[in-house]
Structures are given as structure tokens and as C-alpha cells.
Target: Crotonobetainyl-CoA:carnitine CoA-transferase CaiB-like acyl-CoA transferase
Amino acid sequence: MAEADNIGTTGGALAGLRVVDASRVLAGPFCGQILGDHGADVIKIESPEGDECRGFGPPFVDGASAYFRAVNRNKRSMVLDMNREADREVFWRFVATADVLIENFKASTLKTWGIADPASITERFPSLIHCRITGFGDDGPLGRLPGYDAAVQAMAGLISINGEAGGNPVRLGVPVVDLTTGMNAAMAVLLALNARHRTGRGQLADVSLYDCAVSVAHPFLANFLASGVTPKPTGNGHPNIVPYDVYQTATCPLFVAVANDRLFGRLCEALGIGDLAADERFATNRQRVNHRDALNAALSKAFAAVDGESFGKQLLARNVPAAPILTIAEVAQAPHTAHRQMVVKKDDYVGPGIPIKLMGTPASVRTGPPALGSLKATGEDVESIWTE
Model:
């Protein structure tokens, strides 16, 4: 576990950037945390009840869920009751002094505040980068509908291709839609900031869960567009590459991913079935895909006779991708996880590490997640809040 003080300085690539994070739950807060990790000053706006994911537990730490704590570090919290006009005025004063606004308000909510078109916010604040996160966008057949990770997984086809062949469709265990949307939102902010350097103007960044989910339906969507054949679940197998699957060894399951003919030859040699690589049914990936069942039967028999852990290391030594299936607990305690600082500790905060490692302006964990309303809005002077 890495001490956060050893993960860079407080400078960061985005030092000096002011971000109002008025989003809640996962996609928006994850975007805000990415910006905060890299030095941005992020003020999280919460309702008097707080972001509901503070209660997504157990487990809880200091009254807040581990879920909340994982995506809200490096922020300060301010409570504003947006149903009150006075608090909305405070909110807009903060937006006026910010570089970035992240929000996932319902369009109907914005309308009650007198904002008929979300794009008008950047007309009011010309230099603002307005990152708007929605379920399906604000127009179109599904526009303005609420978005939830699992529902969007279903509507974007992701659940339909996940699970065992012939079995029931299965939700992806990781909230991949929300997390992908959060990463795309952070990228959208950075793209818009770069454009502002050139034009001097901000813009609306429209990021929807649906778009992000459809964009990661790879290679299944591409396969359908090319063939017209509706993809089906393939379990641990790959629709385009064979062998690419989990094989049961004498001791443990082993995932093997062989992406070219040369690696297939090395795999067969290591298994003592080198003649299989010369079989015309398996000589190329195209042929292996066409004869998937016959090949997997031969490989399964060979794998059943080897020690999984030691054989996996032998394959890696031959540059053949292979890996045992680890639990989350094993990953959290793995030496390489510690080496890459992917579990970090700062005072009483422990959480996932920072995957983007910049050498010149490294990211840092400066503060843990904020207590609800740790900042207090006073009077007209929002500048003092930013600088305190």
C-alpha cells in the first residue's frame, strides 16, 4: 500500500483549475475525482441530504460508504438547497468563477430554474466548460429519460453478449457504463479546455451514458455492422480470436489469450502438442475460429495435465499471455499492485490508486472524501472560498 505523500506533489497537471462538481452518484463524481487527482480545486455541491451514494453500503467508513469514498477524494463539499432561490444564486456565483461545471441535473429540473436549454449556460458564462452528463442526451427518441448503469447496459446491448453461451444474459459486474462515462467526461473537459486555449471560449460537453455504452460494445457492434449476424454470449471466449478462454488445469483455472499464429505455436509446443499447430484446421486464426470446438477439446485435454500456476509462468516466459484468475482480495494484496501504487493511503483514507502517472506533473491524493458540507457559503464573497 502506497502512502499518498509519495505519489507526487500538490502541483499536478491541472493545478489552478476550478471545478464545480454538482453531479451525484458515480459517472460525474468519478470525472470530478480524476480532475481533482491531477490538481484541480474541486468543490462538490450537495443537497442537504447529501449525495445518495454516501449511503450505498455497507461497508461504511466514518459514516460514508466505501462506494462514495472511492470517487470523491480531493474535493471539498458545500451544501446548497437548490430548491431555494437564494442557494441557487450562490451556486451561480460559484459557476461564474469556475473553469468547469460538471452536472447531471434532469432537464426538467433545469427548466424549473428558468433554463429551457442547457446549452444556454455557456452563453451566460462564455469561458465555462460545461460538462453535462445525462442518461440518453437531451433530445432524440430516448432524450431526457433518466439513465442508470444496469438499465443502459441492457439497452445498449452489453448484457445481451455477456454470460455463457446458451445461458441467461448477465449484467457486467463492474458498473462499466458509469465508469466509462466518467472517464469520457474527464476527457471531454480536457479537450474543451485545450480548445479554449485557442478560441478563448468555453463550450458544452454533452456526454451520455447511452453513447458511452454503445461505444464500448467492441467488437460485437463492429462484427454486426460488418456481417449482419446478431452476436450472442461467448462466455470467457472471444468472438474473433481462438484460443482465448479459461482452461482448467490440474490445479487451477488459467486464462490464455493467444492473438496470433506464432503465439499459438508456442502454446502448443509448451503443452507438448506441437503437431496441433501444423493441423490445417488450426494453422491460422481464421481456421481456429471456424474449428473452435475441436480445438478447445484438444487444448482442454492437454491443460488438464499441467500445474496451472507453474505452467502459467512458463507461458509468460515464452511471451504467451496467460494468467491465473485472482480474487479482488488477492489483487489488493498483490506485490505489483503495491509497486504500481494502485492502493493508496492518506491519513485515514484508503482507496484505489491513480492509473494515469505523469512524470513531470504527477497526480496526488491530498485529501480524503469530504464530510457533508465541509465548506460554508457566506455572503457574496465566493473568491475567499476558492482560495481558503
User: Anything to note?
Assistant: The chain has a mean pLDDT of 94. The longest helix spans residues 176-199. The domain at 244-248+253-324 is CATH 3.30.1540.10 (formyl-coa transferase, domain 3). The chain has 16 helices and 14 strands.
